[in-house]
Design brief:
heterodimer, A: 103 residues, mainly alpha, Arc Repressor Mutant, subunit A, 63% helix, elongated, B: 181 residues, 3 strands
Chain lengths: 103, 181
């Protein structure tokens, strides 16, 4: 089971934002603001843990004029983990928000 | 008029140089990615190489930006390679007998052949030794009896060759002047 760091949480949040959509690495990087050197090890870890699934884009590379990309999305298990993690983070941040709003 | 032409040619030249340099950076970035994937285990290297090369095309910006992205990927590949090594199940190192067990029949046959060759060579050497002594070098004598006596009693080397003949090797001392043989 991968350790859930802040960066991992960002990736989970990005993928959780729209569960039905497949995203390729660069899209996730743009959404999370993570560098490629940080993002891909996280994606690999999540995939090994079974929280993320991936598949190759089905295109005719010669017709499209580019290589096929690898797309990712959360699995059912990954969705549960992401939901739990994000709820936990929200709960931890709630007192801070309350403090800020009252001040 | 000529100034405009020179200016346009200059701009064209600069654009061409920039394009070439950007292309060179992009090619370099692809090379960096191919090198980075060598860090990964063989089972995963192909997949990540294809994925990163595909994403390299999608990275916006000039070649230098792509190169920076590829260098970042290299750092990530290093992390992934380290993690793959760390999580790989440790296999017990097999002992030499376990490794050789499947080839035991072949090894036995090879050992037997080597043994026969060694025995043959030893026998051949002994025969050659014996025949060389029998040929009679200076200071040797072959006797069928049980020893030899000389007036000076030189060192005697008696060997037992086959065929029942005793070979006696006499290492004679050099004569001293003024003494009878």
């Amino acid at each position: 089971m991968p350790r859930i760091t802040r960066e991992t949480e960002k990736v989970l949040a990005a993928l959780f934002a729209d569960l039905a959509t497949w995203r390729y690495g660069l899209q996730v990087a743009n959404e999370t603001g993570l560098r490629s050197g940080t993002l891909y090890p996280i994606l690999a870890r999540l995939e090994d843990a079974g929280w993320v699934e991936s598949q190759w884009e089905k295109i005719d590379e010669s017709a499209a004029g580019r290589r096929a990309r690898r797309y990712y999305r959360l699995t059912a298990e990954g969705e549960q983990v992401a939901r739990a993690t994000l709820n936990e983070t929200q709960a931890q941040l709630a007192p801070l928000r309350l403090g800020l709003s009252s001040a | 008029m000529i100034h405009y032409l020179i200016g346009a040619a200059g701009l064209g030249l600069v654009a061409w140089v920039v394009g070439e340099v950007a292309g060179a950076f992009t090619r370099l970035a692809a090379l960096v990615i191919r090198t980075a994937t060598r860090l990964l285990p063989d089972a995963k290297a192909d997949r990540w190489q294809k994925e990163w090369l595909a994403e390299l095309d999608a990275v916006p910006g000039l070649g230098i930006v792509k190169l920076r992205w590829a260098l970042n990927v290299t750092a990530g590949a290093g992390v992934m390679a380290y993690e793959a090594r760390a999580t790989r199940p440790k296999t017990r190192r097999r002992s030499i007998t376990e490794r050789l067990a499947p080839q035991s029949d072949e090894l036995f046959a090879i050992g037997l052949i080597l043994l026969l060759v060694a025995a043959y060579l030893a026998q051949k050497e002994r025969t050659r030794d014996a025949s060389g002594k029998r040929a009679g070098a200076v200071g040797r004598s072959t006797l069928s009896g049980s020893g030899v006596r000389t007036s000076r009693q030189p060192d005697l080397i008696v060997s037992n060759p086959p065929f029942g003949a005793a070979v006696v090797e006499c290492k004679t001392q050099p004569r001293r002047p003024g003494r009878n043989p």
